[in-house]
Amino acid sequence: MNIVVDTNIIFSAILNPNGKISDLLLDPADHFTFFAPDFLLTELDRHHQKLISISKFSEEDISFLKKLVISKLVLVDLETIDQDTWRKAIELVGRADR
């Protein structure tokens, strides 16, 4: 199953490495493929210090967790997605994620 995750899900996995979201991302048991927009990397860099502050983890721990979680994702350049796919995605999601 293909699953699209957003930055909030990744933040949750990093901040709570023993939580359910982290478990699912880090050990998908070949059932799931996780996709995320490539600007997620920019978001993680932008909020790096906040992640350290909130988590109380060391800089090295946060960097390690970020790399570990990112390694489980397929990053997608949103510019490569054609208009028909965008329309279908909006139709499927509806107003749930606006």
Task: Offer a concise description of the structure.
By secondary structure, this protein is of the alpha/beta class. The protein contains six helices and three strands.
Describe this structure in words.
The structure is a single chain. With 98 residues, this protein is an alpha/beta fold. The protein has one domain (2-93): 5'-nuclease (Rossmann fold). It has 6 helices and 3 strands, in the order E-H-H-E-H-H-H-E-H. The chain has helices spanning 7-15, 20-26, 40-46, 48-55, 59-70, 83-93; strands at residues 2-4, 33-37, 73-76. Strands 1-2-3 form a 3-stranded parallel sheet, with no helix packed on it.
Largest sheet: 3 strands, parallel
Q: Low-confidence segments, ≥5 residues, pLDDT <50?
A: none
How large, in whole angstroms, is the Cα Rg?
Answer: 15 Å
Overall geometric form: globular
Strand content: 5-15%
Number of distinct helices:
6
CATH domain topology = Rossmann fold
The CATH architecture can be named as: 3-Layer(aba) Sandwich
As for the number of domains, it is: 1
CATH class: Alpha Beta
Which class best fits the helix and strand makeup?
Answer: alpha/beta
Tell me how many strands there are. Answer: 3
Give the integer mean of the pLDDT values: 89
- N→C terminal distance: 23 Å
Characteristic terms for this protein:
alpha/beta, 6 helices, 98 residues, Rossmann fold, three-stranded parallel beta sheet, single chain
Helix and strand topology:
Elements: E1 2-4, H1 7-15, H2 20-26, E2 33-37, H3 40-46, H4 48-55, H5 59-70, E3 73-76, H6 83-93
Parallel strand pairs: 1-2, 2-3
